[in-house]
Specification:
Strand order of the largest sheet: 1-2-4-3
Radius of gyration: 23 Å
Number of domains: 1
Order of helices and strands: HHHHHHHHEHEEEHHHHHHHH
Number of helices: 17
InterPro entries: CAXX_Prtase_1, Peptidase_M48, Peptidase_M48_N
Low-confidence stretches: none
Domain Peptidase M48: 207-409
Bound molecules: zinc ion
Family: Belongs to the peptidase M48 family.
Organism: Lutibacter flavus
Binding site for Zn(2+): 276, 280, 354
Length: 410
Amino acid sequence: MTPQTLFYILIGIIIAKYLFDTFLNALNSKHFNDAIPKELEGIYNEEEYLKSQNYKKEKYKFSILTSTFSVLLTVLFFVFDGFAYVDAIARNISDNSIIITLIFFGIILFASDFITLPFSYYNTFVIEEKFGFNKSTVKTFIFDKIKGWLMLLIIGGGILALITWFYKLTTTNFWLYAWALIAVFTILMNLFYSKLIVPLFNKQTALEDGELKTAINTFANNVGFKLDNIYVIDGSKRSTKANAYFSGFGSQKRITLFDTLINDLEIDEIVAVLAHEVGHYKKKHIIYNLIMSLVLAGFTFYILSLLVGNNLLSQALGVEITSFHIGLIAFGILYSPISEITGFFMNVVSRKFEYEADDYAKTYSNADALISSLKKLSKNSLSNLTPNNLYVKMHYSHPTLLQRILNLKK
Ligand SMILES: [Zn+2]
């Protein structure tokens, strides 16, 4: 194969992925006006339903705009040897391959984030604002960006530097070391995410004594679940959308409730949502997810180790010196069809886990309360009640509202 052929293959993959995503989005948009299934009637009144449809349409148009812009930018960057240009800048600054890699990715990631900044600003302060979701201020928005960049710099930069170093030391075997590093990092993140990362962006407070806490403790005692760590997070700082999640394991396990969730739902509904989260834990989903992502990471690093040293990858992107960072970019694109497939299967498993967690909530809490909470949450986030089947299969980590209700009513 010539570098030229590989270049066209890379461009082909980028465009094919864009076309496929655009096709799926268009397919999904064809169902925006479908009749609402009988089980979902009454969630919206007429005015709210109209609003939810406008929200979907606006989001859809916006996604076409952003994805088209980003694919055009990417293709132009390829055609005009952008990677070779950035590579030359990095090589001018240092001779050290680790520092070159860091500067190279630093420039690319920072520049692309900066260029797409107007889109994320528009999304938050125009679209989300218009539909009443946005609670974020420009100040919060800017600080979030800066904190995000700093985290990327420290955590992302640290990991990238170590992986480049492993590659320099061991070449073919580097994937084993990189895998071990990611495994340790993933487990630590799972354990300490709520303690280390969340506080940078949100305030968390232990759930106060009161009716809700008593109801939660009663449930926890009934199912023999030791639950000392229930936290409330100020999600309302950014958006009215509500959520709840489980994190950590062992002594670090905790449940986090958005303050918006507590505002929107009745006590029995919150307990039902919590029962669903406890279901994830009891059915060992947290551990299974961790194992799956580690196996997948190992597989990805192994394939990377087979390809990254090939000088074709660098030459295809217009760089004569075979280099790890250019290899990583080319690999990222070559691997993206595989990650579509693995992503598809991860979603299949995730939806299965959601059913299991719902079943757990049905057995140990209250199916009707969970149904009414799911309906309220869907209504308050103006969610799509009639998504397309194929779109759901590709993109949904949760079953649709209809599927979940039918399962809970079984
Ligand atoms: Zn769940």
